[in-house]
Structures are given as C-alpha cells and as structure tokens.
Amino acid sequence: MSRRTGRPSYLATPPASAARTSGWSILGAVTAVLVVALVGGLVGYTLGRPNETDSRIAEMRAAEVERDARQIVELTDLARRTGQEMAPILVAVRENGESGRAPEAAQLDQWRQTMRQLTEQYADPPSGTTATNVARGGLRSAVAQATVAVDAVALAVSAPDALRPDHLALAARQATLAATTWSVAATQLDQINIDAGNGHQHVHLDAGEADGALTPDGAAEGTGG
Q1: pTM of model > 0.90
Q2: Ordered DSSP codes for 22-85
C-alpha cells in the first residue's frame, strides 16, 4: 500500500505567527520609508528657507529700490522747475558778456534772489543710490556755478568802467560752464529714468549752445523705458 502524499510545503498555510511576523516586517519597512521621506523634507525645507539675515537683506534691497524710484521722479520734477528758472538767467548773463553791458540793478537783484532760492532747494540732498546721487550732484554743481556767474555780474556792476567788459566776459564763461555741467547731469538723469522704467526724461536747459555741452538724444519723452 502506497504512502499518502501530503500538500506541498509552499501550498501549506503558514502558521499564524509567521504571517504576523511577515506583516510587521512590511509595516516596519513602510514606516521607515515614510520617516526618511519626512525627515528629508524637513531638512530640505530648513536648508532652503531663508534665514533671518537673508530676509532682512531682501527687505532692505526692496526698500532701496522703492526709495530710489521715488527719488528719481522727484529729482526729475525738481530739475524741470530749476531749468525753467535758471536757463533765462544764463542766457542773459552770456548776452551781457558779449555786449559788455551790465543789467539793470532791479534785474540783477531778481537774478540773485532766484539763484538763492534754487540753491536752497539743493542744499540738503537725500541719500540715494550712486547713480541718482551723481545726477543730483551734477545738477547741484550747475546751480552753484550759475550762482557764481550772477555774483560775477554783480561785481562787474561795481567795477570801473574800463574793467566792466572783462568782468562780464568772465561771468559769461562761468554761465557757459554751468550750462555744460547741467547737460552732463541731465544726461545721467535721463539714463536712470530709462533704467527705472520711466522712459526718456529730458531736462536739458534751453539756454542756447554751450561749448562741450551734451544735448538731448531726440527720443520721445517717456519712450525707451
């Protein structure tokens, strides 16, 4: 009589303890993977998150950009008003130098008063970026030179008749230097307006030609930003 054959071992139902051990093993592996992923995510977030110093630097840079954009607009408006008042004075001073004739006392007093007011407007400049400070400094220097030109005219009035033409000619040269300096600053101001997205902003003086002076580029106002 043949011996009865049992079920193959691989078909046999595993003992309950073995099944539980296998289940716990799988659960443990899954848990380990989740823990590793969670830890990795936390580490990545911590490393990628800007620290307090980086955040502060970013805030300061954003504030600087906003401040400079505001200063550029304000400086452009100031330059336009200044040019409208100063250009006629420079034209007249140069004409006096060519003719050798001094202006009337009332006219000279008006020039000096205007230049004092313009000088005060540039007396306490705010701090800005280098590019804006350069433009402002150039405009301020031009105003100072124009003031010296008017003062030179005042000295010419009190000078002896024989010396008056020479004094007026010297004042005219100073007026030309003022116009030239202004043209350089105006070109710089035009460029920073373009860089700031405002487009071309021309504040060059309408004071006739001056030796070495830069002229507007001919682009339409507000374009190119």
Answers
A1: no
A2: HHHHHHHHHHHHHHHHHHHHHHHHHHHS--HHHHHHHHHHHHHHHHHHHHHHHHHHHHHHHHHH
